[in-house]
Amino acid sequence: MMRVIPETLVNLCKERMEGYNCEGFVYGRGPMNPAIMIVGEAPGETEIHNGMPFSGRAGKVLDQFFHYLGIGREDIYFTSTVRSRPYKIVQKKTVDNEMIEKKYNRAPNLKEQLAHAPILDYELQHVKPKQLVTLGNIGLQRLLGRKYTISDCHGQLIQSKVRRLKEFDSNEWTWSEETYSIFPTFHPASIFYNRSLEKDIYEDLDHLKDILHKKKS
Ligand code: URA
Predict the structure, then answer these.
(1) Which residues of the chain have pLDDT under 70?
(2) Within 10 Å of residue 97's Cβ, how many Cβ atoms?
(3) CATH number for the 7-216 domain, one of 3.40.470.10, 1.10.760.10, 3.60.15.10, 2.160.20.80?
(4) What are the domain boundaries of the chain?
């Protein structure tokens, strides 16, 4: 699979990430000019381990969504707001009463999102997706700002400019010149915590199916 992101950019983002509790780096993956670009949150432990976006538990649920849409992974470009795994360390007692440290996945904070912003900016400009699908609040707000919440706008088609860094290596947001077609829905992992969201997600997918169908014809 050809890598879209130049190594210099990856190294820049790794430098920008120094001092944060984030590990590894998972490259975005998929074809140029894809039918869909998925914008997730950040890779988790499984993805860091095998270098493949959405290859863990949430990815299995996401695959069911694609199956429902009748679209294969090969037509989709996968990326996310942050490309490293943000983690937190939690002290745990073992059955033998020993204290051990465990790493858990967590959502990326705003500084980490800013640190990795050059990557998604670059991908948007070069991959040129026909349709963006954001998963959860993190991907949505990375692109449209914090006025947008997933509970208010999931399942709606939004035509908008998206947030990007003012300059390649800055820490200030501005808006893209291009207008993108953005479809927000819930993150597949959300149903692990709230099963009732599954119904909302499938209603969103029905709408997305229509949108994709109209784009084809
Ligand atoms: N969530 C994401 O946003 N990306 C992954 O690769 C896995 C889970």
Answers:
(1) 1
(2) 6
(3) 3.40.470.10
(4) 7-216
